[in-house]
Amino acid sequence: MPPTALHEIEAALAEHFDADHLAVYADLLQECGDPRGELIAADLADRTSDDAIAAWLGPSLAHLIAPEDVQAAFIDDVFLDGDSPRGRALLDQLSAHPALRYVRGATVRGDAAWVATVVAELGLQRQRWLERLSIQVTDGGGGAIGDAAAARLTAATPRLVALEVWGRRVFGELAHPTLRSLRITGHDAVGSILGAGPARLPALGLLDLAFDGDDFNDAVLAARYRPERLPALRRLDLSRNEPGRRAPHYFGGTVDAYEVLARSPLRTRLADARLPSLRRWRQGEALERLVAAGPRSIEIARAYACFQGIVVTPLGVRTPARTFPWRPLDQTQHALVTWLPDLGGEQGRRRYELPLAPLAEWLELEVAEHPRLLRWCSLVGYLLDDPGPRGVAVLHDAAALADLRASLPPGDDLAPWARFLDALGRATPLLASDGVLWRM
Length: 440
Known about the structure:
Layout lengths: L2 H13 L3 H13 L3 H10 L5 H8 L1 H6 L5 E2 L2 E2 L2 E4 L3 H11 L9 E6 L1 H11 L9 E6 L9 H10 L5 E5 L14 E5 L20 E5 L7 H6 L11 E3 L3 E6 L10 H7 L8 E4 L5 H13 L3 E4 L16 E2 L17 E4 L12 E4 H11 L7 H12 L6 E4 L2 H10 L7 H12 L2 E4 L2 E5 L1
Parallel strand pairs: 3-4, 4-5, 5-6, 6-7, 7-8, 8-9, 9-11, 11-12, 12-13
Antiparallel strand pairs: 1-2, 14-15, 16-18, 17-18
């Protein structure tokens, strides 16, 4: 098999990672006697086994990589956690195995020293398939990745298109010609997008920026992001900048994302902008300026019922299809829904103290991907509207309650909600024309 034929199909597969190109690639690998060809063919036929994966990776490495993270003889995602002995063992074994050359996505999490170690390892050999990389520095150590290490990483990742960086001053002058998407938590995590000077990320089209709780003058912060450094930027996502410093999208501190964007010289270059919830009149005024002279398309990521009527959203701005019935998490850290239901029978009138923040945090993150969870929002809305013994929770059908209970993730923070739903499920329902009512 001429090397050029394999090179050509790999180049085509990198552009179109689909079943047709994988089938051709599998045939070529099998002709070369490469066992990955058999593994890809088995995956395409939906008959991949853990034994087949272990035969490629070896038993020790296969023990450290979940089978679902291996797709068609590629490692689709690998998590290198410096706080875990498993993560360090995984790095040691993966670095010594040919499978490192077939990683498509990686997450590196730990202190600055660990991140520097992993990035240095990635830069030692060409990562021909790596498309997605997340780097999360968990301590305050700045300069985790020096300019020389960043240059080696760039040279080793010719197909990297999506990069996520968490931390303070993680990269200095990172330059990468193929990077199209950058997600930052920490305004100065990547120095290449700040200040004046030549473009270092010439293909970057999407910037998802969270300020990570930093408190700045909005005008000063806006001036730090210059168009000349981001010539291809067309989409800016500031939606994770709700006030505060809490995952998943409360990273704004006291910075007003509306004012930052309205003052930024980037605004006239953008096709799309995404913003956090609209809360104040001043934000409405900034939004009107953006509609007049800013991005062609503006979307507000989330809305809360408590702010309805305070600000009128200008025409042309896309608003959320749903409005959350609770106050935003920066205002409900310790809020409890006290529920004293009359469930009858042995349940009696047991008091339930239901923490609002963990449930709201989970729903705000998940409901966009799983619309059926809107039933949770409806239930919480009823509880907030009438937290007394005469309240009535309305669900569309009896199966909805079981579905909500099954969807609730495990964890101590949400355990009170699980107990509440278990009790509600044991209550005697009253049939009604618009669904099922549970007497509370």
